[in-house]
Amino acid sequence: MPRPAGIALATLAVVLLTGCGGSGNPTVATVGGEAIKQKQLDAVVAHFRSEAQREGKSFPDGKNAAFKPLRNRLLGLLVYRAELRQAADRLGVKVTDSEISKRLVTPAGGEQEGSSGDTFPRDSVEAQLLYERIFAKVTRDVKAPTQAELSARRNKAMSDFVARLQRETKVRYEPGFEPGP
Question: Looking at the domain that runs over 26-173, which CATH code has it been given?
Fold first, then answer.
């Protein structure tokens, strides 16, 4: 029969392991207060690994020196998407699930992209729609004498907006997940 002290120590060990970062899904970056979790990053890495395999290309594994910089660039994509969502919220820009579904491409096999549990296609469409709507809002008052100049001015206005967004958004990377050169 176990001693009460032994039970207390075992209980304490379980509490410490489950309650203090032992969840198995740690935060890898924080964007304006929004956590990006390890599982989100793992899912994006798995998507690109799967794409590389489908195309017959190699993809570095976790032990390869090329993996960490690649993983961190993919984390940068997740950070950028979080920045876009937050900017859209501030600007009152919305995208519905219905609009995202309409934009998703159905492959020849008939299965809608993302239905296998891979949310990357859906998240990409959402980011694209948000970008387009933010672009429209940010550039709505831009004027120019020619269509070419109007396009250039709109592109510059949006580029400036994104640069300011990335400069002003507080992003904190956990150790080992910092973007590299």
Answer: 1.10.4030.10
